[in-house]
Input
Amino acid sequence: MSSQQQKWLYLIVLSLVWGSSFILIKKALIGLTPIQLGALRMLITAVFLLLIGFKSIKKIQKKHWIYILYTALLGTFFPAFLFAFAIQGIDSSISAILNSLTPFNTFIFGALVFGFSFKRKQFIGILIGLIGTLILILKGAELNPNQNYWYALLVIISSIGYAFNVNIVKKYLHDLDALAITAGNFLLLIVPAFLVLLFSGFFSSFEVNQETTSALGYITILSVVGTGIAKVMFNKMVHLSSPIFASSVTYLIPIVAVMWGIIDGEKLSLVQLLAGGVILFGVWLVNKAK
Output
């Protein structure tokens, strides 16, 4: 399989996996607090990744560790908690839609902070994707007027963190394989995640019942597949493509998330479906530009 085919395969698979992660967070929050969910997500992922990728950590050189730390904090630690809190206030599908601001932030910060150059067609594609996203947000607000859209700021902050993460991986960790980067990330996160879980009262107040058992099941799937495996795939995709291409996965995620939202009783209109088509066109244009 060529690198061109691989990056598109990763894009599709990650869209399906991460598009499903929002509904998993929503379900897990029934039995866990946002703080507990975020901490458990990192701890379970860390155990999984260190089991399969501990040897790869040896590949990390001294010069890499500071950037491994930056990507761990900006791409995983803070977003894990921010998304958990956000989905308490707004629909899971709306959170996924807002997350599609990531390519725009990747473009802006990549150009201003990291010195990456992009084509005009890529910028046009990003704007088209943003138009589709804006339509989805406005229509969602119309259909669900009782939601607290201040929680949307938490998702926007996360998308900025993701933008920095993908640019850092591309510029400073391009000579390190994807599994080493991801395993290194979670090695650094084990202690802070455990401390957060400890002070959240999880060990003293956790009760085993149907809700908490189901929540642990959802968070395990989210951690192993939606964080562990998906992070390795994402870092591989960054190496194979550009930061803009890699971050454009967040334009496809809302389509999957909205479908899960419908299944779970969240409202969707024909206008939102059309907006999804606009987003897809924007992704195609971004990645067609050479």
Remarks:
- The mean pLDDT is 87.
- Residues 174 and 239 are 6 Å apart (CA to CA).
- DSSP finds 13 helices and no strands in the chain.
- The chain has one domain: 3-288.
